[in-house]
Amino acid sequence: MNDPKIQNQINIELSDEMAEGQYSNLAVITHSGTEFVLDFINIMPGMPKAKVKSRIILTPHHAKRLFRALKENIAKYENVHGPIKETEGGDMPFQLNGPVGQA
């Protein structure tokens, strides 16, 4: 039982409900001096209202780790499937009336 590999393992549980996931086609990121807030939203075309489906609050340290992990995984994905094409401009075709991000 003194094996460091065994001591450093984490048992992560995933409930059936959480395993279904939430679809998101919009993320709004805001931050303060102590945390990053990621709101994941499913917005439907032509609908004047959308609800936040999930909110994740991270420390700046964990936000940077998430950024690095996403960057690495996007690179792995593109190596297998080719470049992910971005839309021209990248601007949202509507105005969000929420908190203004500082990032």
Low-pLDDT residue spans: none
Strand order of the largest sheet: 1-2-3
Q: Which structural category do the helix and sheet elements fall into?
A: alpha+beta
Shape annotation: extended
Helical stretch tally: 3
Biggest β-sheet strands, sense, barrel: 3 strands, antiparallel
Oligomer: single chain
What's the overall average pLDDT, rounded? 87
Distance between the termini: 45 Å
* Share of residues in strands: 15-25%
Q: What is the chain-wise order of helices and strands? A: HHEEEH
What Rg do the Cα atoms give? 18 Å
Total strand count, please? 3
**Helix proportion of residues, in percent?**
25-40%
Task: Explain how this protein is built.
- The chain is of the alpha+beta class and 103 residues long.
- It has a domain at 20-81.
- The chain is 30% helix and 18% strand.
- The chain contains three helices and three strands, in the order H-H-E-E-E-H.
- A three-stranded antiparallel beta sheet has the order 1-2-3.
- The chain starts with a helix and ends in a 22-residue tail after the last helix.
- The model has no long low-confidence stretch (mean pLDDT 87).
List the helices and strands and how they pair.
Layout: H1 4-7, H2 16-20, E1 26-31, E2 36-41, E3 52-58, H3 60-81
Antiparallel strand pairs: 1-2, 2-3
Q: What's a concise summary of this model?
A:
With 103 residues, the chain is of the alpha+beta class. The chain contains three helices and three strands.
